[in-house]
Amino acid sequence: MTKKLINILIADDEDLIRNSLSRFITRRGHTVHTAINGVEALELLKHKPVDLIILDLLMPEKNGFDVLKEMNQFLPVIVISAFSGPLEVDIHSDMYPQVIGFIKKPFENLQTLVEQVEDTYENYIRKI
User: Fold this and answer.
1) Where do the H-state alpha helices sit in the chain?
2) Listed range (4-13, 57-66, 81-90) with the worst mean pLDDT
3) What CATH number does the domain containing 83 carry?
């Protein structure tokens, strides 16, 4: 089965993560838009077609929680964060219905990370 090509917004203030992830995802055929903070992410969502957001929680100006509250709730989000513990439970609550996955930083392998993103998105699409 061929994987669906995805329009992805990566919102992360860490240049290395944002740029590396963007390059790797683009090489797999997907379209990528990037934002360095929550303000930029919300602005891009107004003007770019996006199927999925990969969202860091700790960003300047507007953090990931702000983005989750202000964005279209029907757009799926995979949260990437160094947080651990109770946050994982909280982020999957009814308060954030658009969150379809949580991936912990740091990442050991970009290929595994991108495959996890693709699989999580495909599983989400099958359910709707």
Assistant:
1) 15-27, 38-47, 64-70, 86-91, 110-127
2) 81-90
3) 3.40.50.2300
